[in-house]
Specification:
alpha/beta; Rossmann fold; six-stranded parallel sheet; six-stranded mixed sheet; 11 helices; 12 strands; about 20% strand
C-alpha cells in the first residue's frame, strides 16, 4: 500500500509539471534530493525547473526523503522513477555505498544516472555535478587565517557524520589549517546541518571555549543558529562567523555584519547543469571530466557592502 501511494504521488507530480506540445517528445527527468525543505535543495530544484521551462520540452520530477532522510525512502523513490521509465535519474546520494544497488537497477533498466551534490561509491554514473567542496573548505579556512593574521582559536560546526559533503569540506579546511601553525582548532563538533542544533552546539562551545575568535560552520543553517548563540552571549564583535552555502538569509546577515563571511556555492547552477547535461548525455555526449564543477567563492561583509544594493538590508 505504501509503495502504491508513493508511485501515485510521483505520477501526480509528473502530471503537474505540464504536457509537451503535440508531436514533441517530452523528456522526463527524475531528481531524488535528500530533502526539499532545506533552502539549498529548494534552490537547486528551482534551478532545474527554470532550465526545464526554458527548454520547453522537459519535465523535472523532484522528490525528497524529507525529515527521515534515510536510504530506504530514497531507494523507493528511485525505484518509482525506474518504474515510470523516466529518461534520466539525478541522485543526491544519502548513503554513498548503500545507494549502489539501486543505481545498478537503473543501469539495468537503461536509464542514465547523474549524481548531484553528493556522489555514490559505485554503479555507473554518467557525471557528478557539484561544488568542489575541498576547495570551498580550504577557501573558508584561508579567509579565517588571513583575518586572524595567522594567530587564534577556532571552532568548527560539522554537518552529519559520514556525509561525503561534510568530509570533503573538512578535508579542505584541515589542509589549509596545517599551514597555519599559529591557528588552533579547539573544538570541532557535529551539528547535523540543523539551525537549532547549531545554536545548541555553539552554546556548548562558548561555555567550554569562551575566548574563541572564529567559527567555521559547514553549512548556513548551522551558521545561522550559531549566530543567535553568539549574539545572546554578546560576542558578535569577538567571534568571526563563517558559513557555507550562499543561502539568501546568510548572505543578508553577511551584508549586515552579523556573519563575517560565507563560502558561496551555486545550487541553482547545479540544477541548471543537471537538466542541460541530461539532454546532452541522452544525445550521446560525454562530459570531458566526470566531476562537473559548479563553482565556489567566498564573500565577506566588505565585499557585499561594495557590490550589493541596500535593498538586501531589508530597507
Amino acid at each position: 500500500m505504501r509503495k502504491s501511494l508513493a508511485i501515485l504521488t510521483v505520477l501526480m507530480l509528473a502530471a503537474m509539471v505540464g504536457v509537451a506540445s503535440a508531436g514533441e517528445k517530452q523528456i522526463r527527468l527524475g531528481l531524488a534530493l535528500q530533502t526539499i525543505q532545506n533552502p539549498f535543495y529548494l534552490t537547486l530544484k528551482a534551478g532545474a525547473e527554470k532550465a526545464a521551462a526554458e527548454l520547453g520540452n522537459v519535465q523535472v520530477i523532484s522528490v525528497g526523503a524529507e525529515h527521515s532522510v534515510d536510504l530506504t525512502t530514497q531507494v523507493k523513490q528511485i525505484e518509482d522513477f525506474i518504474q515510470m521509465k523516466v529518461d534520466v535519474i539525478g541522485v543526491v546520494a544519502i548513503e554513498r555505498k548503500g545507494i549502489i544497488p539501486t543505481i545498478e537497477k537503473a543501469n539495468r533498466a537503461g536509464i542514465p544516472v547523474i549524481t548531484v551534490d553528493t556522489d555514490a561509491d559505485g554503479g555507473k554514473r554518467e557525471a557528478y555535478i557539484a561544488t568542489d567542496n575541498v576547495l570551498g573548505g580550504r577557501l573558508g579556512a584561508e579567509w579565517i587565517i588571513k583575518m586572524l593574521d595567522g594567530k587564534g582559536k577556532i571552532a568548527v560546526l560539522e554537518g552529519a557524520p559520514g556525509s561525503q559533503v561534510n568530509d570533503l569540506r573538512l578535508q579542505g579546511f584541515r589542509e589549509a589549517m596545517k599551514k597555519a601553525e599559529g591557528v588552533r582548532v579547539v573544538s570541532s563538533l557535529a551539528a547535523n546541518w540543523r539551525r537549532d542544533t547549531g545554536m545548541n552546539v555553539m552554546n556548548d562551545i562558548l561555555t567550554a571555549q569562551p575566548d574563541i575568535q572564529a567559527v567555521m560552520a559547514l553549512n548556513d543553517e548551522m551558521a545561522l543558529g550559531a549566530m543567535e548563540a553568539i549574539k545572546a552571549r554578546g560576542k558578535s564583535k569577538q567571534v568571526l562567523l563563517v558559513g557555507y552555502n550562499g543561502a539568501a538569509e546568510a548572505i543578508q546577515q553577511v551584508y549586515k555584519g552579523a556573519m563575517a563571511a560565507d563560502v558561496v556555492q551555486y545550487p541553482e547552477r547545479i540544477g541548471d547543469l543537471f537538466v542541460r547535461w541530461s539532454l546532452r548525455i541522452l544525445k550521446g555526449e560525454k562530459p570531458a571530466k566526470f566531476h562537473i564543477d559548479s563553482g565556489v567563492n567566498v564573500v565577506d561583509t566588505v565585499l557585499m557592502q561594495k557590490v550589493v544594493p541596500a535593498a538586501l538590508q531589508g530597507r
